Amino acid sequence: MDEDDEDKRKREERDRKKAEVRKRLEEAQRQKKAKKGFLTPERKKKLRKLLMLKAAEDLKQQQMLKEQERQRILAERIIPLPDHLDSMDNSELQELAEEFQERIMELEANKYDLSYTVRQKDFEINELTIAVNDLRGKFVKPALKKVSNADTKFSKIKKSQSAKVDFRANLKEVDTKKFELGEEKEEVKADWAK
């Protein structure tokens, strides 16, 4: 019995070791499968959500910076009004009006200069795009002018009126006597009938 017990124990030990090895192999295969697909659908969703949050945060920050820049520029450009306008005399008010007028003239001059430079840049951009298109061999179709439908309708009506020609008036007159049967021909006819 000792041998049977010992054999039995050895078999159980072998089976247990085989089960452990199988378990390790299965675990290794599962880990390999998990490593294959790094971006699982859950990870993709989480990554997308994080990217959207980051983009929204960046957008808010940019808007805030633009607003701060706008406020700073407005503070530079706008001349504050004095609080005591009612108590000012005419000469002070006139000086203030002249100061505002000078500021307006300066801003209008700057505006004109900027609009001129913008027009120049637009012209240069247009010229460069034309040059690029010429080099590529692509030609831009020019914008067609709009033609009013009334003019074309009038021209069609005039053409149709000129197309109506009295054909009968231009026909030649044909001498019908030429085709009449004369007396001689009637005699020949009578001879043939007999």
UniProtKB/TrEMBL annotation:
<feature type="coiled-coil region">
    <location>
        <begin position="56"/>
        <end position="110"/>
    </location>
</feature>
<feature type="compositionally biased region" description="Basic and acidic residues">
    <location>
        <begin position="7"/>
        <end position="30"/>
    </location>
</feature>
<dbReference type="Pfam" id="PF00992">
    <property type="entry name" value="Troponin"/>
</dbReference>
<feature type="region of interest" description="Disordered">
    <location>
        <begin position="1"/>
        <end position="40"/>
    </location>
</feature>
<dbReference type="InterPro" id="IPR050875">
    <property type="entry name" value="Troponin_I"/>
</dbReference>
<keyword id="KW-0175">Coiled coil</keyword>
<dbReference type="InterPro" id="IPR001978">
    <property type="entry name" value="Troponin"/>
</dbReference>
<dbReference type="GO" id="GO:0005861">
    <property type="term" value="C:troponin complex"/>
</dbReference>
<dbReference type="GO" id="GO:0006936">
    <property type="term" value="P:muscle contraction"/>
</dbReference>
<dbReference type="InterPro" id="IPR038077">
    <property type="entry name" value="Troponin_sf"/>
</dbReference>
<comment type="similarity">
    <text>Belongs to the troponin I family.</text>
</comment>
<protein>
    <submittedName>
        <fullName>Troponin I</fullName>
    </submittedName>
</protein>
